[in-house]
Amino acid sequence: MKATAERVTAAVLIIGDEILSGRTQDTNLNAIAKFLGAHGVDLAEARVVGDIKDEIIAALNALRGRYDYVLTTGGIGPTHDDITADCVAEAFGVELYEHPEIIAMLTARWGAEPNAARRRMARVPEGGELIKNPVGGPPGFMIGNVFVMAGVPQVMRGMLEDVGWRLKGGAVVVSRTVRVEGFGEGLIAEPLERVAKAHPDMSLGSYPFFTPDGYGSNLVLRGRDPDEIEATIGELVDALAEAGITGPIIDPPAPVASQATGA
After folding, report:
1. Which one of 106, 140, 199, 263 has the largest count of C-beta atoms within 10 Å of its C-beta?
2. CA 157 – CA 54 distance, rounded (Å)
3. Where are the alpha helices (DSSP H) in the chain?
4. Which domains, ranges and CATH numbers included, belong to the chain?
């Protein structure tokens, strides 16, 4: 029997009153989840907190102690409510300082010494490392297992490119779908559960659909061992047939990515 591949986990902490109020729609979580998956890192939890210092610190400390990595978005701009850097520094028990490289960057951009508001974007916790911002503007930073990035989606996605090489990745998750048409979940549940119990290291889920042409369910299998995935598809098709469910449509396998490695 093959040993279970190492699972590397991460959490996302989305910071900002504007997300909780509904004024701004978050699109970063989806981008981060896909990015982490491609690097063999499971996104295990996501939280949204407002611009409240104690709540940000509490959430950050809980998540960084539970998972291998924490990625934060939002709250590193120039205004008074951009307090993420302050919270991260306090969580790690270190001081903030103005990073000379960021000060020089801001000076070059505006052609003069940055004002007090802009200097807020140059503050980095002691011991932090910069995360490049290829889009323009100040960088983010990393300290311990925490990556602090901007909330603006275009900027955040740019910063992610300087995060990937720092991750210690696990085995990339493989996902396959068995589509069943014309049968409801009431019939699918028993054979699906039976196969799922036989493969505890895999995830098997049912996602029903309803269209003008009919109804059914997409049965999604996720795991780190491509050979086990293929074998389980066969077991599932057989179990469905025993329950009188015929004609499943199996999606073609995607190219298998190699195990992700990080620095």
Report:
1. 140
2. 27
3. 17-21, 28-38, 53-66, 84-92, 100-110, 116-119, 153-160, 185-198, 226-242
4. 8-166 (3.40.980.10), 174-250 (3.30.70.2860)
Q: Tokens representing 106?
A: 């801001």
Per-residue pLDDT tens over the stretch 33-87 = 999 998 999 999 999 999 999 999 999 999 999 999 999 999 999 999 999 999 9
State the residue for tokens 């990595």.
69
Q: Name beta bridge partners: 148.
A: 72, 141
**CA angle (166, 170, 174) in 5-degree steps:** 125
For residue 54, CA distances in Å to 11, 50, 57, 59, 238 come to 19, 10, 5, 9, 53
Closest CA to 30 of 14, 17, 15: 14
20: CB partners within 8 A, 6+ apart: 48, 49, 50
